[in-house]
Specification:
With about 525 residues, this protein is an alpha+beta fold. The protein has helices spanning about 60-80, 90-100, 115-135, 160-165, 180-200, 220-225, 225-230, 235-245, 290-310, 315-320, 365-370, 395-405, 440-450, 455-460, 465-475, 480-490, and strands at about 1-5, 15-20, 25-30, 40-45, 170, 175, 250, 265, 270-275, 280, 325-330, 340-345, 355-360, 410-415, 420-430.
């Protein structure tokens, strides 16, 4: 110990600064808590990680830093908080460890988190660590810095850091990452500080990072891309025709590489471009069990598309729904039992963790699935793999949509990624520039129904909120006068009497017939 100097007001010996010979003569603070009799020694350093001069010239800086740290420690001990410091890296490790324990073994998001959510959080926190270390656009600090030394406004530059260091654009020329993505990351970072830093009493509430003032509000322009993701009437009819006439029967205009077979010739020996050559897309000669299962899957995918468009059910629900979720329509509903069934959606498969029931005009589609599927017991998934009886893999859903979109002449086969690397799975480039996924059927259902139904009835039927529809689906040129009035008044509340049948009109049915 060298150059020991008591801090002002601490002449009794409970706090002083000194040069610590065990730390290469760095100035340090010694502090004794009279209540707990605990002793603390801390190396002193500035917020930018510089140390006071390791000579007597650094005494004034050491006294200034020592006094500040002394009162910090005193305040913590008085509030019952921990006086030991926690590094950013250690906080990240503790947070991810805690989040990993929350993963539900059944991947149920309503009882913990899913594996996908954990991996997303892991990526978000990794971006934060890079932000802390980055010297050009980030903070330029070490991830061993103590969290109590972090400025509460240090996330103000996070938005610019993410955009500058990513320096990429999506297919529409918009900068990446998207604004909503960065906002989600910022709130995840703040949650980490609250959960670990404040929750374990390493910092107080006044040391939790503040939400930045800029770039944190999502406008309708930022979130309302639903029109781009939904089908118009002509597109829907095209994919409906392609699914019914060709895809479900195992026929395609394209070979396995996504190239056209060609066109038939007319009487004059010229190519007739209105008559493409179609061949079987089924495995082998079509006689093996694998080929038979593939054909059944094709038919079930087509019917799944019809069910999705007729009900507006989320694709996540459709993937998990079982035969036990389907009930006969009661007589009091005054609906045709040959056409309607009741679909009950349990809370564990519902996005909002709410149980709800809807009358749906899908009896015919379900009956067709029952006639071809091998798995029709009460506990079986409606959309089950014919070989294993398990839920369909994501690949079946994704590649089937690609094939139907191509057959409908709405998309082209995407063979390489942005880096020019050959794709191993089927992907598409939608000709209209829309981002079409299985969610597009739900988007289309809601958009179409807003033309003829009041918004609160659509919200109730689709298990969502009026506010969400207003934010994501509100296109005045597409809506009915009733829906626009509902939104402008702002007085309509979501109906609680969903299955009382007063709020559900009988026109919740197929949206457009095949043209």
């Amino acid at each position: 110990m060298l150059n020991k100097h008591y801090l002002k007001g601490c002449e009794q010996g409970n706090a002083y600064v000194f040069q610590n010979t065990q730390r290469k003569n760095k100035w340090s603070l010694y502090f004794t808590d009279k209540k707990t009799k605990e002793r603390f020694t801390r190396v002193l350093q500035e917020e930018d990680d510089r140390y006071p001069s390791q000579t007597l010239d650094g005494l004034l800086d050491a006294e200034r830093l020592g006094t500040r740290l002394y009162f910090e420690l005193r305040s913590k001990t008085d509030r019952g908080e921990k006086t030991k410091t926690l590094s950013i890296r250690k906080m990240v490790d503790l947070y991810l460890e805690a989040e990993k324990k929350r993963i539900n073994p059944m991947n149920n998001p309503h009882d913990g988190i899913t594996r996908e959510t954990y991996y997303r959080e892991e990526r978000e926190i990794t971006h934060y660590l890079r932000f802390v270390r980055d010297k050009e656009w980030g903070l330029g600090r070490s991830d061993t810095s103590s969290i109590h030394l972090m400025d509460i406004n240090h996330l103000d530059t996070y938005f610019d850091y993410r955009r500058k260091t990513t320096d990429k654009f999506d297919d529409d020329g918009k900068p990446l990452p998207r604004k909503a993505t960065i906002i989600t990351e910022i709130f995840s970072i703040i949650r980490m500080y609250k959960t670990i830093g404040r929750g374990k009493k390493f910092i107080g509430t006044n040391k939790v990072p503040l939400v930045p003032a800029d770039n944190m509000i999502l406008s309708k322009r930022d979130v309302q891309d639903t029109r781009r993701e939904s089908f118009d009437k002509d597109e829907w009819n095209s994919i409906l025709n392609a699914g019914k006439n060709w895809f479900q029967n195992g026929l395609s205009r394209f070979d396995k590489n996504g190239d056209l077979y060609g066109f038939e010739k007319n009487e004059n020996g010229e190519l007739d471009y209105s008559k493409p050559i179609r061949k079987s897309m089924i495995f082998g000669k079509g006689t093996s069990q694998r080929a038979k299962n593939q054909l059944i899957h094709n038919k079930m995918v087509y019917l799944g598309m019809r069910i999705s468009m007729a009900t507006g059910l989320r694709i996540g629900v459709l993937k998990q729904i079982r035969w036990s979720n389907i009930l006969e329509i009661p007589k009091r509903s005054k609906r045709d039992p040959k056409k309607y069934v009741v679909v009950k959606v349990q809370s564990e498969i519902s996005k909002n963790a709410d149980y709800f029931e809807i009358p749906a005009p899908i009896a015919e589609f379900l009956n067709e699935i029952k006639t071809v599927s091998k798995h029709t017991k009460s506990d079986d998934f409606i959309f089950s793999n014919q070989k294993t009886g398990k839920k369909w893999s994501e690949r079946i859903w994704t590649e089937a949509l690609v094939e139907m979109m191509m057959e409908a002449d709405l998309a082209d086969r995407k063979k390489v990624d942005k880096k020019g690397k050959k794709l191993t799975t089927k992907a598409m480039q939608v000709r209209s520039g829309k981002k079409i996924t299985w969610y597009s059927f739900r988007h289309s259902f809601i958009t179409f129904k807003l033309k003829t139904m009041k918004i609160h009835k659509v919200a109730t039927y689709c298990d969502t909120s009026i506010q969400y529809i207003d934010r994501h689906y509100y296109h005045p040129d597409l809506l009915s006068a009733e829906s626009i009035n509902d939104m402008e008044k702002g007085t309509v509340k979501k109906s609680k009497n969903l299955f009382g049948f007063k709020q559900i009109q009988s026109d919740i049915n197929e949206l457009y017939p095949i043209s």
